[in-house]
Amino acid sequence: MTASTADSRIRYLIVSDGRSGTTLLASILGMAGADFGLPVAEDWNPSSGSNEHPDLVPTTEVLEKAEALTALSTRYPGLDLIARGYRSRAKRKVGRLLEKAPYHKSSAYMAPYAFKLGYSPRIIASAANRGRWRGPRCCSSERPIPTSLIASR
Question: Domain residues of the chain, as ranges?
């Protein structure tokens, strides 16, 4: 893979633990020239969700279902087939979303799928100062990212 091909596979994912300034961060990056695949908002509205692709919410919902079912399938083996179907669907949705631009506000769940699709994800973490950083909810000790997603492409 040439350097330019490798660079074209880099995706910057802005992740957060919720209400931590991702819209502001994405707006600043967008005004500085980062390509989110969306028009750059002229005004910054903290509740607008600007620079958030319309496909992000449905993609995140499928990602969360896939990960929840995967976690449950260790206790209930019959769910494995359903979980595999959701993971496959999530991978397709993530692939379609990542094709649209190099920068994305996203769920932290997206990074392992991006890696499996041959992208080189770069995580930009945004956290609010609430006294103690909790980390993204999806990566808490109750809901870790499964290592099986990270292990291979």
Answer: 3-37+48-151
